[in-house]
Write a structure and sequence with these properties.
By secondary structure, the protein is mainly alpha-helical. It has one domain. It contains 20 helices and no strands.
Length: 487
């Protein structure tokens, strides 16, 4: 019988190949954008638009991916589970798209893009395509067709990158930045359209046979997840939207105020990308972990497996935190324009925040497995309210630093709340000693390196990475038994 940890590691590696390489290719667009958009305000426009994408994807997929994985374990008719979830998502997106076409100018006015309602239409089209293809991609994951899943995702990302390079390096005129925004949106649109083309069989074989009772069960299960996901996206991306709106008002609601606000968003978003290296790893892991955790539901050793997975996970994400935060002298060159470098001080804060987010995601399996998905909604709503409160209170005085600290505080609070509730309703005996050792050790090494004033880049590189090596040795020593069992 195959070892479950080894199976998870293998699937994470395959999903990670498409996700990590794909995201890294997308990351190559950040140096591109920060070099061609000389004024950070222009990059701020792109960043804010894509912050809205995250909200819409959660709304328009309606938690059906998780519902699909859950009901696959409970229902005999697997095809019916897929068909009803897929048709539900299609129906939601059709309604949304008609509303978007009718109200696009009103939406553009509210988002301070009154002269560019085409941004709204293009963005809505992209999100609908991505949402509709989400469930066929989830089906590939459930069938463990990781290679085909990776191929489709990778092909879409490659097309997006190639089109961006062509449009922005060959056609784009820096004196017309609004055209650059359109080029980016069109590149994404064409790349998104490639997914349904490659998934044509799922669309062509779809039978319009709808089981209202099953659909209702799936919707009731997924609705709290939608609330939780929507609130979670508030924690992840609302800061960029609030930065623009609050600074616009604070600076006087003029054209100059809008420029200042969008510049702050551009600087913060560019530096935020460095912190999202943890998120890249997390995304690859989540693709494999969710179906894996559900598949372990009937195993007697499931809680031991969950605990061992958590130990390894924390060690790895803390390592990424150290590698990036202690080598900012190198990673900052990822952002081509030095104008953006003033925001680098947010990177360690956001890296640690994303470590806490990853732990929270790992813990969240307790309410998904137990069916208590409403708790996920409560935790996320509490985090969302705290995010809004901190940003509204402190952005006027501290700008994007307030947003960075809000992210860290909220993710830490959610992690703690999820752990305490999970231990009450679905106890998993996690190794708290290792939690404290791995996280505390990483933070201690970071502060130790920050307090030592090394004058040369070479000396900083040697000392910082020497300590990182010691951290790797510590984690390996602590986890060698789990790693041995996984091989």
């Amino acid at each position: 019988m195959s070892n479950p940890i080894r199976k998870l590691l293998g699937q994470t590696a395959v999903y990670g190949l498409s996700s990590i390489i794909g995201r890294l290719l997308n990351y190559l667009l950040v140096p591109l954008y920060t070099s061609v958009f000389i004024d950070p305000s222009d990059y701020g426009v792109v960043s804010e638009l894509y912050a809205w994408v995250a909200f819409l994807v959660v709304l328009l997929t309606f938690g059906m991916e998780t519902a699909f994985f859950r009901f696959l374990q409970q229902k005999e008719d697997k095809e019916s589970v897929f068909r009803n979830g897929f048709l539900t998502v299609i129906g939601i997106n059709v309604l949304f798209y008609f509303a978007l076409l009718y109200f696009n100018q009103d939406i553009a006015d509210l988002m301070l893009y009154s002269d560019h309602n085409e941004y709204i239409i293009l963005l809505g089209t992209i999100v609908c395509i991505d949402a509709v293809t989400a469930l066929p991609l989830a089906k590939l994951r459930s069938e463990e067709k990781a290679a085909r899943f990776a191929t489709i995702q990778f092909a879409s990302i490659i097309l997006n990158v190639v089109l961006n390079l062509f449009f922005m390096l060959v056609i784009f005129n820096p004196e017309l930045p609004e055209e650059g925004v359109l080029f980016i949106l069109f590149s994404n649109l064409f790349a998104s359209l490639l997914k349904p083309i490659l998934l044509y069989k799922d669309f062509s074989d779809l039978r319009f046979s709808f089981d209202w009772e099953l659909a209702k069960e799936m919707i009731f299960y997924s609705f709290p997840l939608v609330i939780a996901g929507f609130a979670g996206i508030i924690n992840e991306t609302l800061d960029r939207i609030l930065l623009k709106q609050i600074l616009f008002v604070t600076e006087g609601s003029s054209a100059e105020a809008l420029h200042i606000a969008e510049s702050e968003v551009g600087i913060y978003s560019a530096c935020y990308k460095l912190a999202m290296l943890v998120t890249i790893l997390l995304q690859a892991y989540r693709y494999a972990a969710e179906p894996f955790f559900f598949a372990q539901m009937k195993s007697d050793d499931r809680n031991k497996v969950y605990a061992r997975v958590m130990n390894l996970f924390i060690g790895v994400v803390c390592l990424v935190f150290l590698v990036v935060s202690l080598n900012l002298d190198i990673f900052k060159h990822f952002i081509q324009n030095e104008v953006y470098w003033e925001g680098l001080k947010v990177v360690p804060i956001l890296l640690l925040a994303n470590v806490f987010l990853g732990i929270y995601y790992n813990q969240s399996i307790w309410y998904k497995l137990s069916g208590r998905t409403s708790f996920g909604a409560y935790i996320a709503i509490g985090g969302a309210l705290l995010t809004v409160l901190i940003n509204i209170l402190f952005i006027p005085e501290y700008g994007y630093m307030a947003s960075a600290w809000a992210t860290l505080i909220v993710y830490a609070a959610q992690m703690i709340a999820s752990y305490m509730l999970g231990q009450r309703f679905y106890p998993i005996k996690y190794n708290q000693r290792k939690f404290a050792l791995y996280i505390g050790g990483a933070v201690l090494i970071y502060f130790l390196c920050s307090s030592i004033d090394l004058q040369t880049a070479a000396s900083r590189f040697i000392v910082h990475n020497g300590l990182i090596f010691l951290y790797v040795a510590l984690v390996f020593q602590m986890e060698r038994n789990s790693l041995r069992k996984a091989t």
